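Note to self: keep these together.
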Amino acid sequence: MERIPALLQDADVGLIPLRVHSGTDIMLPTKLLEYVSVGIPCIVPKTGTITRYFDEEMVRFFEAENRDSLADAIVELYRDPARRTQLAHQATERFGKTYRWSEHKKVYVQLVERLLGGG
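Structure:
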């Protein structure tokens, strides 16, 4: 467990190879958020939920369950280190600014207080 962060630092990309169905189309993969938080560029399927939080400047999309589309995405990013860097920066910066815990905990606490009648 202690070696995982060091292993991730050596990653060129993070793959999120979901098969799209009713469950995966509405989830935001935790692994995607982990990769983004440590600055790993990601290759993801174009699901409804992922596209709600990320755009083509933040991740490299592929057509879910299409191995040629996934392979094209992998090769494209392999050949373009500058694009990998740009994707990682945009995802970490934009997602992180919007969804960082320090801001969302305030919203969460306010909601709980309101539900409990204290705010």
